[in-house]
Amino acid sequence: MTGSNEPVVEVHDDPAAASRAAAEHLATALGEAVTIRGRADWTTTGGSTPVQIYRELTAQPLRDRVPWDRVHVWWGDDRFVPRDARLSNVLPLDQVLGAPIPGGDGGRLPLLPEAIHPIPMGDAIDAGTGPVGAARAYEAELRAAGLPVAPSGFPILDVVLIGVGTDGHLFSVFPDSALFDSTAWVAAVPAPSHVEPHVERVSLNPAIASAARLVLVVMHGEAKADIVATVLGPERDPRRWPAQVARRRGAVWILDRAAAARLPA
Ligand code: 6PG
């Protein structure tokens, strides 16, 4: 795309190629952050998008390119369910990046358990403090990490990986979200009725996607073609299409041909 505040848009042949490209961008960004700051802070996403990206990261050549023992993983959002529940956004990471390396001798990536930062849903469920309790605890954890803070007052993550729903949501920031008027870094989100699953969530503030060093938006499949064309189209209204927060310089939109089908040539 052209224009000073526009993202780079890449179109790949299929979801596999898009996932490979996303994993390469991620590996490069994590490596650069460690070189510059001594650690890398990555916010990952839920939904179906990240699984193949995780697989690419556990395979060569990327596996050896990432300084895993310096990587911190955060979540952009999660559902208010335990970590091992089918709907958890942490489960796919545990099952791929946290599992023994395929074809190996049982070894795992040297990710440090204390550098994996799931939103503490299990603790909040046990304590009965609900999504609000989980959001408060996560904000405290994020603040304690000592990340640089942007002039907007929000933390600067090295790389934020984002999937976008067909309604244009990113994280669990849905159209007309109250989070656009909030200075909270993390907030509880009521269960959406218009997208599945209909469960309460906890989400980062969309301003964190504005402040990040690099935003990677990954979308594939025909079902995303309309929203891709809208979000990257002529009208700008991030409250209506929250994914437009990620339509910025410093973002790379990684699409497959099916998702890009309705973009102008
Ligand atoms: C969630 C996600 C959400 C997701 C998009 C895209 O918890 O639902 O974090 O923002 O990334 O809905 O989902 P897919 O990757 O499944 O299309």
Describe the structure.
With 265 residues, this protein is an alpha/beta fold. It has a single domain (9-241, 250-256), classed as Rossmann fold (3-Layer(aba) Sandwich), CATH 3.40.50. Helices cover 29% and strands 17% of the residues. The protein is built from 8 helices and 10 strands. It has helices spanning 15-37, 50-58, 62-65, 91-96, 121-127, 130-144, 207-211, 225-231; strands at residues 8-12, 40-44, 71-75, 77-79, 116-117, 159-162, 186-189, 201-204, 214-219, 251-256. The strands form 2 sheets. It has a 7-stranded parallel β-sheet, with helices on one face. Helix 8 links the parallel strand 9 and strand 10. Helix 1 (15-37) crosses helix 2. The longest helix is centred in the first third of the chain and has 23 residues, at 15-37. The model has no long low-confidence stretch (mean pLDDT 96). The structure holds 6-phosphogluconic acid. 6-phosphogluconic acid (6PG) is lined by residues 45-49, 76-77, 89, 163-165, 169-172.
Shape: globular
Q: Cα distance, first to last residue?
A: 10 Å
Task: From the 3D structure, determine the CATH topology.
Answer: Rossmann fold
* Overall number of structural domains: 1
What binds here, in terms of ligands, is: 6-phosphogluconic acid
Q: What is the strand tally?
A: 10
User: What's the number of helices?
Assistant: 8
CATH architecture: 3-Layer(aba) Sandwich
| Top-tier CATH class | Alpha Beta
Low-confidence stretches: none
The largest pleated sheet is described as: 7 strands, parallel
Helix content: 25-40%
Strand arrangement, largest sheet? 1-10-9-6-2-3-5
What radius of gyration results from the CA coordinates? 17 Å
Beta-strand content: 15-25%
The secondary-structure element order is EHEHHEEHEHHEEEHEHE
The SS-based structural class is alpha/beta
Mean pLDDT: 96
